[in-house]
Amino acid sequence: MSTLIAIGAGIAVLTGIGAGIGIGIATGKATEAIARQPEAESKINKSLILGCALAEATAIYGFVVALIIILFLQ
Q1: I need a labelling partner for 34 at 20 to 30 A (CA). Which of 23, 26, 49, 60 fits?
Q2: Consecutive H or E run containing 74
Q3: Nearest to 18 by CA among 69, 45, 54, 50
Q4: What is the rounded CA–CA span in Å between residue 74 and residue 66?
Q5: Could you say which residues are annotated as the site Reversibly protonated during proton transport (predicted)?
């Protein structure tokens, strides 16, 4: 049973991979957008920060779920 708990926790932590990929793509696109329209930098930065925060929250939720699985299902 403890093997299944470890596998479940590992799968829950994998949400960090998706968040990292999403933040990387968003940052790249924002950099391209700022290069094309420098006058829109403040609007682009606001949207980028909001998107990165939401992506990072997803990774944190995965980490919390992994901790809950490990601590409460033993």
Answers
A1: 60
A2: none
A3: 54
A4: 12
A5: 56
